[in-house]
Amino acid sequence: MLGSSLICLETHYPNDIKEYKKMGAEFFINPSSNRWIDLGTRHFLYLNTNLRKIFSVWVETPIVISGVEDFAGIITPEGKTNLINYENQDKNYAVFFGEIRY
Questions:
Q1: CB contact at 8 A, 39 and 47
Q2: For residue range 10-49, what is the model confidence (pLDDT) as tens digits?
Q3: Between 33 and which of 11, 48, 68, 89 could a Cys-Cys bridge form, CB atoms 3.0 to 4.6 Å apart?
Q4: Residue of higher predicted confidence among 77 and 1
């Protein structure tokens, strides 16, 4: 399988995502750090997750997400999300195990 990494806010550039898909990407990985957000983290994560979901459906490609102060999991081309929240863990981080099947 051929994957492409979309670092941090690169998911905000739909034309790049479409080009990577044309180049053969079968899934995307989106590592990010949201330490820079002072206020409004939850709202930003909500909006950013919806944007990633739209792109996953649009290019019919799964997106694996993880990062500092971000969700961890997989968004599928059907628009389904399987995410865990780092805030729900007693150690302020979470580990997600998932699998992409074709």
A1: no
A2: 888 889 999 999 999 999 999 988 878 888 888 988 999 9
A3: 68
A4: 77
Rounded Cα distance between 76 and 57, Å, is 7
For the question of whether the overall pTM of this predicted structure is more than 0.70, the answer is yes
Domain ranges, ordered by start, for the chain: 3-88
Amino acid symbol at 97: F
| Tens digits of residue pLDDT in 38-81 | 888 889 889 999 999 999 999 999 999 988 888 889 999 999 99
Query: If we measure between CA atoms, which residue out of 49, 12, 8, 47 comes closest to residue 31?
Result: 8
Beta carbons of 55 and 17 less than 8 angstroms apart = yes
- Could you tell me if 76 and 62 are in contact, meaning their C-beta atoms sit under 8 angstroms apart? yes
| CB crowding 15-40: b at 16 or more within 10 Å, else e | eebeebbeeebebbebebebeeeeee
Q: How many helices (H) and strands (E) does the chain have?
A: 2, 5
